[in-house]
Write a structure and sequence with these properties.
18% strand, binds zinc ion, TIM Barrel, binds D-xylitol-5-phosphate, alpha/beta
Amino acid sequence: MKHLIAPSLLAADFTRLPEEVKMVNDSQADWLHLDVMDGRFVPNITFGMFIIEAIKKLSSKPLDVHLMIVEPEKYVEDIRKAGADVITVHYEACTHLHRVIQQIKETGAKAGVALNPHTPAAVLEEVLEDIDLILVMSVNPGFGGQKFIYNTIPKIRRLKDMLTVRNAHALIEVDGGVGLQNAETLLQAGANVLVAGSSVFKSPDPTDTIRRLKEIGAELKKFV
Ligand code: DX5
Ligand code: ZN
């Protein structure tokens, strides 16, 4: 499977929101990544259902919603109603993770689980077959534009091996500090979805940056 690109709207210019979403619509991006923060799970606050609903009206791409909130089970149904196609909760925010995964799937959305940089891959062992996506945080969640944390790479490899052994099919998504400089390494390690905020929206030509991120694997294959 060709990898997916999910630009993170957090780095966009919100005074030009319709234009920024249209840029993503017209690009080779696969998903639009939306970061919901509550000021409790992470030290920052972004937006919730109301804004997701507005973005849903503008976006032609599936909405990949990353919940960085405590007690996500309280909001899963509303986030789905607002238009989320993929709903990812943090392992660290869920006492009853298995239950929350089932809850997401019952809404009809794809279910993802995110791991903070310090959280070992092994904690997902017992739910690997239940989830559609594993989000590997490669920065500490809360802000865009941070430096990529390198222990993410062996962690992606470990997750990939765990999935292979179990013949499970969850996608591995990487989020934080991802751009043209490390995309190839991440894909080789086993990543399937690249989230890119600053590296897309702060680049001189965001559409072209998305195209280049999307074509990385293809360029590799040309020379094989
Ligand atoms: C961080 C968010 C990311 C963020 C990534 O907590 O989960 O999605 O937007 O931003 P960059 O790509 O700038 O590191
Ligand atoms: Zn995110």
